[in-house]
Amino acid sequence: MTTDLIDTLEAIRAGRLTSPQALSAALDAARSPACHDAFLQRFEGSAVQPPEGAADLPLGGLPVSVKDLFDIAGQPTPAGSQVLRDAPPAAQDAPAVARLKAAGGVVVGRTHMTEFAFSGVGTNPHFRVPANPAATDVPRIPGGSSSGAAVSVACGAAFVGLGSDTGGSIRIPAALCGLVGFKNTARLTPTEGALPLSTTLDTVCAITRSVRDAVLAHEVLSGRTVSREARPLPSLRLGVPSTQLLDDLDETVARAFERCLRLLREGGARVEEVPLEALQGLSGLQASGGFAAAESYAWHRELLATQGERYDPRVRLRIERGAGMKAWEYLDLVKARRAWIADMERATGGFDALLSPTVPMVAPPIASLAPADGRDPAADAQRDQAFFRTNALLLRNPSVVNMLDGCAISLPCHVPGELPAGIMVWHGALRDDTVLQIASQLEALLAPLRGH
């Protein structure tokens, strides 16, 4: 793993490195074959110069990447699509982009994403899929929808990959690529200037290389200071929901997750399995497509009427599910979500955090989920079935936190020789600091096993 943001900042402030040197190395990484497909637009020359006095700013003049759905002044915001490729340029930076720049971050490019952020797989038929840098056997998916954000960070082209998380779009690629992805409580970061998928569930957040980098990135994006006061492990009570979230784990993920639980128990933490029956009602809440389908259809309906054939068919299918939702069904969903959150808060209130595998699988091969090409209808149907089955599994665990209006962090828990697996530390709204503190302690427990 390339050195993290905090280590690099310390090297700059100690005089062992300069911001331009670090930025130059990142730009070289961005041009490398491994990272090339991570960017839909890569910036060069005067566009990637550290600001004056960068070394004294929180991000120190170091590189960050921006998911293609955020406004950058003077550029269109295509969101990984063809239909918005020639849209009018943004008048100003999205607040999240502006905050990164004000903190000394240098934007090195716009990153690959699932079209309109509507899948956890990370494929997009309009652009070549960036292969997961952690896989050396066969090309594997990076996860999505913030696919390029993850690959840019994993390859060393950026220290912070700005993205969005509506059902896991930060945590899924972080888990599959061996990175850290923090989804804060949604209200803590501004979503203006980011093309919406679901105004109810969207969260602006980032992928980093370590938990401490995630803390710094969150402080910049939220404009708040995170408490660093960690409680001793023996004082922590951690819940492991057994309903659904532990189903269908592949061998690598199951082994890595049990390893984490064992380390926490050996450190003195109380780790308890909890049924959390309320999770059984979640699929019923979203049977008609949920918030994402209804709210994305409201945004896309005019474009679909005039340019629907230019959409990714898999994305279009999911958006158009929202066309059939009636007003009373949407209002019932809002009400039912409030009641479900109350049930979850009652069931989890006695725990300092919950622990789950971020996703139940390691990254599958890209070829198994390739878009339909029209040459063999039977093969196309099989790939579509595999895609939607994989997408549902990838979204299953992380999407719980979005519906909960909660916060969660995925951190890598695999060891050398294994494909990446992530553990998710999570809880309800505004428990962000506690979740980050526990993740930091778990990262330290895992470090010797992971070779750090």
Automatic annotation (TrEMBL):
<dbReference type="InterPro" id="IPR020556">
    <property type="entry name" value="Amidase_CS"/>
</dbReference>
<feature type="domain" description="Amidase">
    <location>
        <begin position="46"/>
        <end position="436"/>
    </location>
</feature>
<dbReference type="GO" id="GO:0004040">
    <property type="term" value="F:amidase activity"/>
</dbReference>
<dbReference type="InterPro" id="IPR036928">
    <property type="entry name" value="AS_sf"/>
</dbReference>
<keyword id="KW-0378">Hydrolase</keyword>
<dbReference type="Pfam" id="PF01425">
    <property type="entry name" value="Amidase"/>
</dbReference>
<dbReference type="InterPro" id="IPR000120">
    <property type="entry name" value="Amidase"/>
</dbReference>
<dbReference type="InterPro" id="IPR023631">
    <property type="entry name" value="Amidase_dom"/>
</dbReference>
<protein>
    <submittedName>
        <fullName>Amidase</fullName>
        <ecNumber>3.5.1.4</ecNumber>
    </submittedName>
</protein>
